Amino acid sequence: MRENDNTRKSGAMGQSGMMEQPGMMEQPGAMEKSGALGQFGAMARMELCNIFGLNVFRHTRDSKARKKSLGLLCLYVFLLAVMAFYVGGLSYGLIFLGMGEVVFAYLIAICSVVIFVFGVLKAGGVLFRREGYDMLCALPMSTAAVVLARVLRMYVENLGLSLVVLLPGTIVYAWIVRPGAVFYLVLLLGTLSVPMIPMAGAVLIGVFVTGVSSRMRHKSLVAAGLSILLVLGIFWLTSRMSALEGEFDLEMLRNASAFVFTMLGRLYAPAVWLGKAVVYGDFLRCLMCVGLFLAIFAAVVAGSCACFHQVCRNLYGGFARHDYRKEELGGLKRKSVLFSLCGREFRRYFASSIYVTNTIIGPVMGCVLSGMLLFLGTDSLEAYVPISLDVGLLAPFLLAGCFCMMTVTSTSISMEGKNWWIARSLPLSAKHIFDAKILMNLLLVLPFYLLSEGMLVLAIRPGILETVWMLLIPAVLIVFSCVYGITVNLHFPMLNWETEVAVVKQSASAVLGGMGGFVLAILCMAAALVIPGEYSNVLRGSMCVVLILATVVLYRGNNRHAMAWK
Predict the structure, then answer these.
(1) How large a percentage of the chain has pLDDT more than 70?
(2) Mean pLDDT of the chain
(3) With contact defined as beta carbons under 8 Å apart, do 160 and 83 qualify?
(4) 3-state secondary structure of 218
(5) pLDDT given for residue 231 in this prediction
(6) What is the DSSP letter of 333?
(7) Residue 50 — pLDDT band, cuts 50, 70, 90?
C-alpha cells in the first residue's frame, strides 16, 4: 500500500506540474513523433537563433555590451561598404573593357575561393564541436539532424558572404547592361548554389583532418599540422596561377574574355559554368549546375553524418591508467609563478587545433617568405612587389607583417571562456596573468623568428646597419602586437561563446587585435617607401622608438585596466 500511496502522490505531483507548465512533459514524445523533419527544425532553430550574435544583442540588458555591439556593427558596415565599392568598381571596369560576360564567373570564383580557404580552417571545429555534445547524445535526436543543422549554419554564413560579393556586381551589371527578367531568376537560383561546392570541399577536408587526427594521441597538434599543410598547398597552387600567363599566345590575348575564362576554368571550372549560365540567361544550364552542386554537397554531408559519432567518440572519449607504481612518481618541481602560468597558457593553446591553426599560420608564412628569398632569390618577389624597389628595405616589414598576423594574445582572454573567473579569483596579480600570455606568445614565435631572420640575412646579405634594422624592426613590431592584442581583448572580450571558431575567426578582438599589427607593419612599409633614401635610417629609428613607447603605454594601461576588476 505504501508503494501505491507513493505512486499516487507522485502522479498527483506530476499532474499538478503539468497543469502549471502545460506541454513540458510532452516534449520528448512530440520530438519522437515529429520525426527527422521536426528534429532538424528544432536543431536548426538552436543553431540559427544566435547567428552573428544577433540574439544576444536583442536581449542583452548591459548598456556597455550594447554599445560595443553597435560599434562593431558600424565597423562591419564600413567594411561592407568598402567591399561593395571594390566589387562594384571591379565589375564596372570589366564591363567598360568589354568583358561583361566574365563578371559573374569572376565574382563567383572569388566567393568560392574565400569560402573554401576559411571553411577548411573551421569546418572540423564547427561540425564536431564539443559544446553540447553530451546533452545531444542523451536526447532522442538523430545524427543527421545535428549534422544538417550545423551545416545549415555554415551555409547561411557563407551565403551572406556570397551576397556581399555578388550583390554590388549585380547592381552595376543591371544598371549598365539592362538584362531581361530571366537573368534575375537564373541569378537567384545560382546565388543559392554558390556556397555548395566550396563548402563541400571544405567539409570533406575538415572531416578528413579531424577524423585522422582523432585516432592519434596528440589530436589537436596533428589536426593543426594537417590544416597548415593544406593551407600552404592552397597558397602554392594559387601562386602558380600567375605563371600560366606565359602559356597563352597573342591570339588568345586579343580575346580578353576567352583568356579570363580559361584562367578561371583552370582555377575553378564551376564558376565558369554558372557564370555563363547567369550572363546568358540559360535556365537549363543553371538548373544542371545547381543539380550537380547539390548532389555533391548532399553526398559530402551524408558522409559526414555516417562518421559523426565515431569521430566524436575518438575526439572526446578517453581512458585513464591507474597502474602506476609509487616508485615511478618523480619528485615535485618548483617553478616561478610566471613560468607556471606560461605553461598553463601553452597547454590551453595546444589543446585547440582551431586556435593553433589560425595563429601559427603567420609565423609559418614568415618562414616561407624567407625561404623563398633564400632558395629562389630576390627575383621571386617580382609577382608580389615591384622588383625595382629595395628588397632589403621591404623584407623586414613584410616579415613583421607575417608574424603580427593573428597573434595569440588577441584572443587569449576570450579563449578562457566561462573559466575566466578562475584566473581572476587566483591569489595573483593581473599583471602575472597578462605577462604569462605575452611571454607565451613571444616564446611561440621565437623559433620561427630566429629561423626566418637567419634565412633572410643569408638571402640578402645586408650591411651591419641594415642587419640591425632587419632584426630590430620585426622584433619591435612583434612585441607591440602581442601587447596590443591583450589591450583589444580586454576591451572586447567574448566569454560566452558556443564554439572556438566564433572566438578565433568571428570575434571583434580577432579582427581588431589580430590584424592590427599586420596593418601597422604595412603602413610602416608604405612610409619607408615614400621617404627619400637619405632619411631612411632616421625614419626606421623613429619608428622603433615610437613603437617601443607605444608598447610601454599599452602595457601599463593593461595593468591599470586589470586592477579595476582584480
Answers:
(1) 73
(2) 76
(3) no
(4) coil
(5) 63
(6) -
(7) low
Q: List Cα–Cα distances, 34 to 29, 148, 154, in angstroms.
A: 8, 16, 25
Q: Are 106 and 94 in contact (CB under 8 A)?
A: yes
Predicted confidence (pLDDT) per residue in 122-131, tens digit? 777 777 776 6
Closest CA to 473 of 398, 566, 412, 531: 398
What grid cell was written down for 506?
568571428
What digits encode the pLDDT tens for the residues 142-192?
Answer: 778 888 888 888 898 889 888 888 888 888 888 888 888 888 888 898 889
Position 460 scores a pLDDT of: 84
246, three cell numbers: 606565359
Closest CA to 260 of 94, 112, 96: 94
Q: Which of 291, 233, 241 is nearest to 264 (CA)?
A: 241
Q: Where are the alpha helices (DSSP H) in 324-463?
A: 337-350, 353-376, 391-403, 409-412, 420-425, 430-460
Answer whether 341's CB lies under 8 Å from 422's CB: no
> Could you give the CA distance from residue 527 to residue 384 in angstroms, rounded to a whole number?
18
Residue 369 to residues 242, 375, 397, 483: CA-CA distances in angstroms? Answer: 17, 10, 12, 25
What angle do the packed helices 430-460 and 391-403 form, to 10 degrees? 150
b/e map 291-322, b = 16+ CB within 10 Å:
ebbeebbeebbebbbebbeebbebbeeeeeee
User: Cα separations (Å) of 100 from 167, 174, 286, 323, 443?
Assistant: 15, 11, 18, 72, 51
Neighbours of 398 (CB within 10 A): 22
Q: What band does 223 get if pLDDT is binned at 50, 70 and 90?
A: low
Please check the confidence at residue 410 and state whether its pLDDT lies above 50: yes
- Residue entry with cell 602560468: 341
Q: Using CA atoms of 237, 240, 242, 243 in order, give the dihedral in degrees to the nearest 10.
A: -160
Distance, CA of 198 to CA of 117 (rounded, Å): 9
In this structure, are residues 261 and 105 in contact, taking their beta carbons and an 8 Å threshold? yes
Measured CA to CA, the distance from residue 138 to residue 259 in angstroms comes to 56
119-153 confidence digits (pLDDT tens): 877 777 777 776 666 666 667 777 788 888 888 88
- Taking the whole predicted model, whether its pTM rises above 0.70 is answered as no
Q: What is the mean pLDDT of residues 531-553?
A: 88
Cβ 297 vs Cβ 197: under 8 Å: yes
Q: Compare 402 and 256 and report the one with higher pLDDT.
A: 402
User: Range with the lowest mean pLDDT among 21-25, 59-63, 94-98, 227-231?
Assistant: 21-25
Helix axes 536-565, 464-491, angle to 10 degrees: 30
Q: Residue written as cell 601559427?
A: 360
Which amino acid, one-letter code, is at 306? A
pLDDT, average across residues 379-391 = 56
Q: Give the start-to-end residue ranges of the domains of the chain.
A: 79-316, 337-565
Separation between Cα atoms, residue 554 and residue 486, nearest integer Å: 9
Say how far apart CA 375 and CA 396 lie, in whole Å. Answer: 18
Secondary structure percentages of the chain, helix, strand, coil, to 5: 85, 0, 15
Residue 557 has pLDDT above 70, yes or no: yes
| Cα–Cα dist 415/510, whole Å | 11
